[in-house]
Amino acid sequence: MKISISGLTASGKSSLAKELAKFFELELYSAGKIFREIAKEINLNLETLSKIADPAIDELVDKKTKEICSLKEKFVIEGRLAIYFCQNSYKIFLTTSQEIRAQRLAFRENLNFYQALEILAERDKNDLERYKKIYGIENYEEEMKKIADLVIDNSLITLEETFELVKKKILSAYEK
Fold first, then answer.
1. Which residues contact 120 (CB under 8 A, 6 or more apart)?
2. What is the rounded average pLDDT for all residues in the chain?
3. Cα 80 from Cα 38, distance rounded (Å)
4. From CA 36, how far away is CA 56, in angstroms rounded?
5. pTM (2 decimals)?
6. Residue 58's beta-bridge partner residues?
7. What is the phi/psi pair of residue 141, to 5°?
8. What does residue 38 show for φ and ψ, rounded to 5 degrees?
9. Sheet architecture: strand order including 27-30
């Protein structure tokens, strides 16, 4: 069983990935964690590293993601481009309104709502520009929706509801 999850920052990728990995007893991988580890190694925060947009850093994260997808047999991997690189998996794309994403980010990182909105806008801008430059992805959300096996807007549903929906779809897909 191979499951990949993509979506923008604070769309619920990590939370859903943790629940799925626990339920299906799968290894859990995170492209964001790989990116954060690289930032820490070179003594930069996530926003600064994202602004630098060094293609070599993206290549490291993407190479690791591709290795996991091709070498591992059972896993859940989450990252903004996980479904793009993990074609041999059950691909889930999460969408969420910017307001809900900002609320989640504010809560998670102890920010006020407006700080979170600014951070999201900057992070989205930097990430989407990189994806366009490096991979030719013109419209991230539309292109990810096209390759996903399942697209969920989780703006108005809980993590538990999202998990139950995804779990049923995955069980159905793997029964075939």
1. 8, 9, 10, 98, 101, 102, 105
2. 91
3. 16
4. 15
5. 0.90
6. none
7. -60, -45
8. -65, -45
9. 27-30, 75-78, 2-6, 90-95, 150-153
Bridge partners of residue 94, in order along the sequence: 152
**What distance, in Å, lies between the first and last C-alpha atoms of the chain?**
13
Strand, coil or helix: 35: helix
CATH architecture of 2-155: 3-Layer(aba) Sandwich (3.40)
- Cα separation, 80 vs 45, whole angstroms: 18
How many of the other CB atoms lie within 10 Å of CB of 137?
Answer: 17
Model confidence pLDDT, tens digit, residues 41-81: 888 776 677 666 667 778 888 888 999 999 999 999 999 99
Instruction: For residue range 140-173, list pLDDT tens digits in order.
Output: 999 999 999 999 999 999 999 999 999 999 999 9
- The angle that helices 13-24 and 159-175 make with each other, rounded to 10 degrees, is 50
- Calculated CA dihedral for residues 25, 31, 35, 41, nearest 10 degrees: 40
Q: Which residues contact 17 (CB under 8 A, 6 or more apart)?
A: 3, 5, 28, 30, 76, 77, 78
